[in-house]
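Hi both,

Apologies for the delay on this - the queue was longer than expected. I finally got the pyridoxal-5'-phosphate-bound model through. Below you'll find the protein sequence and the ligand SMILES exactly as submitted, and right after that the structure tokens for the full complex including the ligand.
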Amino acid sequence: MSTGTIASSTAWPDSLTPDLLRLVDMPTPYLVTDLDTVAARYRAFTAAMPWATAFYAMKCNPAPEILRTLAAEGSSFEVASLGELRALQALGVDPATVLYSNPIKPPAHIAKAAGTGLWRFAFDSPGELAKISMRAPGAAVYVRLLVDDSTSVFPLAGKFGADVEDAYDLMLLARRLGLRPYGVAFHVGSQCESTGAWRSAVRTAGELMARLRPEGIELEMLNLGGGFPARYLAAEPSIEQIGEVIGSELDVLPYRPGLIAAGTGRHLVAESSVLAATVIGRETRGAENWLYLEVGAHHGLAESGQAPGGWDYPTLTSLEDHAEVPRLPFILSGPTCDSSDTFAYGVELPATVTVGDVLYFGSAGAYTLPYATSFNGFPPPTPIFVGTVPPARH
Ligand SMILES: Cc1ncc(COP(=O)(O)O)c(C=O)c1O
């Protein structure tokens, strides 16, 4: 994590610079999102992958303003639960256009989702197929493949996925159960840093397609999952580079499914937001400099603890001379009595930073607010929006 000038690889919306945020007449903590940046990321994504349909994975930021912005741009949506589907329905999204991509679903959610007209469900096990065949007879199902997620910052750690052999057996079982063997999906892990991960995952999907074809099963959908990276501090492959690699792999598949879906989350929204939090305490403990903020791991910065070695949000301060003054390494912690909300170590910040100053965390639009709690009675950041807010559909 660093402060001062923002590295050129980092995306910091021009509308959300500290000079402008100092003028915001709003108590901290808040998460400010530039909706025009969301729209721009969506357009760049679809330009880089014109053969794909983006299904926004709303789990990473389900703010209605963001959902409406993406819907207005033409995005489709992917859900992880009935609750997410209900939120889309409230905005006028047709459930028949939505993918239900959580491989393990509460049985009641399957039945109720099917009742709305949603017809495509992910799975990766016989148990899930049994649930789907009983609660959503005749539904279309897509199998989640196990692929290498080791080049991602947030791997899925073996929680989901079937290998090709098991996926083949499962698709035949799906047909025997009266379901429609519809597609294949994978997830290379969130914030994936290597184009090679998609290359080998698409090849693995191709192996499954080749195995199923002699059985008379031609898949209608290939879901490339999420994992498309956003810019923080490290250099990531660009969406254009990833699009080129996937595009060339699609050309050598046994055949091309009619729908190439991309269940992308983080890439579309992370760079659009800045999290602002005020320093509530500064203490020296032994040789360590501690900063206590209004937010920590329990109030939106949970991902900092999930990445091996910590997670790098580009960070600025409200100090007008923040780029010039000497720096000190700080430990950053949240406001609670719990030690588990400490979220960063060795952060170089202006040595003069003190109580009342504000820290601005950039690229904070994904997996922040949905994780935030009111633990210890401290409120989560307030969401605010700038840019073009699209009207509600009804
Ligand atoms: C099934 C599925 N699709 C898409 C995503 C979104 O991933 P990302 O935010 O890395 O794009 C996730 C995230 O966990 C997921 O589980």
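Main takeaway for now: Residues 9-31+271-386 form a domain with the Lyase, Ornithine Decarboxylase; Chain A, domain 1 fold (CATH 2.40.37.10).

I'll put the files on the shared drive as well.

H.
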